[in-house]
Specification:
Blueprint lengths: L4 H16 L13 H17 L1 H14 L35 H13 L3 H10 L5 H4 L7 E2 L5 E5 L4 H6 L6 H12 L7 E5 L13 H18 L3 E5 L1 H8 L5 H4 L4 E5 L2 E8 L2 H6 L4 H17 L1
Parallel strand pairs: 2-3, 2-4, 4-6
Antiparallel strand pairs: 1-3, 5-6
The structure holds uracil.
Amino acid sequence: MQQSPQDTRQIEALLDFYLDSGVDCFLGDEPVDWYELTVRQAAQRRQAQASPTQQHAQNSVRAASSAGPARDRPPARVGNQTPQPAMMPINTGPAAVVPDGEIVASARDLASSAKSLDELRACLDTFDGCNLKLTAKKLVFSDGNPAAKLMFVGEAPGRDEDLQGKPFVGRSGQLLDRMLEAIGLDRSSAYIANVVPWRPPGNRTPTPQETEICKPFISRQIELVNPDVLVFLGAASAKTLLGVQDGIRKMRGRWMTYPVQGREIAAIATYHPAYLLRSPLEKRLSWRDFLSIRAKLADN
Ligand code: URA
């Protein structure tokens, strides 16, 4: 039976509803033991590393994982083994990966190979190690001026950012623009990015694994932009990149340093604009932070 365009639109609307509600995987009829799957994949990798022919096969899997969108590829095969049902629980969809140390290492290698921001964006376009890419509509790489002295780093894109492919374009982005304007700046004098460049479904918090996988890319982005002043919007990005454990109340407004290739960049954390939208009284403290940022830029 042929599907009418109206059926297709209804199905798409339903899928969009699921995505917006935070659904990020399909459930099959059979339960999946993810722990067992992780252990089995690790064993397969060890086995593949042990023999040269299987090493070759493993390289093919790696190459496949950076050869275009996962949604266009069949599930990976390791050596001569056909994937067992548990390895492809979602037989209608893209190949989701089980995050592990090897994926973080491949993210690190890929990110450090990028010699420019354009190359880094291209690396992210080919990288299939983060499952958020499977549900996001667009890569949200950056906005603003790559030659700016000032760089902002947020946590992860939301719905509007995902639709436009640019960070901080929704309500919190509009507030950020007004805060910049208040100290005489705009997006032509700042560069803006996020730790995680794909929207987590339903705007949930990125998992520690997703953050760890994306971290090499934002670290390289900071290196390539090499700003004089780095501003972390909210505690999450500061914790990820500075390794500090304090909450935002304690951390904000305090100048710290972020080491980049033998240089120390002045770094500060301030409230996330989304938090300020919920707690407008805290704008007083953000105003102080922005004045301090303006003074630091003038010193540099
Ligand atoms: N919040 C973020 O942390 N980043 C965005 O790009 C938008 C909202």
